[in-house]
Amino acid sequence: MRGDLERLLFDESAIHRRLDDIAAQISNDYRDRELTVIAVLHGSLMFVADLLRRIPLPLKLECLSAASYHGKAETSGEVVFQPATSGPSGRKQITLPDVAGRDVLVLDDILDSGHTLAAVRETLETAKPKSIRICVLLRKRKRRVRQVAPDYVGFEIEDEFVVGYGLDFQGRYRNLPYVGVLRKELLEKY
Ligand code: IMP
Ligand code: MG
CA gyration radius for the chain? Predict the structure, then answer.
């Protein structure tokens, strides 16, 4: 799989060193509060597991699945949440984690167009949390379709398609322990 990468961006130890910094910052910011962490799956899985083990605070962990890519390399703009159940009218309703009155920290792998995190934030706000902050491992340098200002950012990257450490292309590469840029010809095949 390493051969499918054009360039390595962050190896395992660079990621872990950066997680030490962010975890220290979060631990300090929330030292007298009880956090509810919302992990936006699947991309944030590795990030969440490694980050939370560095935060020695009482906290709750909830998961939300959100997809806007549908296996392609560009966002569709439509964000689909799971788990979802059919409401009385047959419309899909999502089962929201209980965040009323809580200090919420949303963790996601990457901020790209902003669609996903804007939708996550709006959806969580309907449940009236006390506060919401956003933490992403990666933020792409680009104009965003929707404005999202994360409170904690691991690394800034250029507007390139990256995989590894939870991030996928068509479901693959999530298990790479590092982050790298996928070779363009692999993206173009689809
Ligand atoms: P946004 O809604 O466009 O901000 O995209 C957010 C979601 O798209 C992320 O949670 C990722 O799952 C996926 N995504 C965006 N950019 C990349 C990338 O470069 N590689 C892999 N997944 C990406
Ligand atoms: Mg994805």
Answer: 17
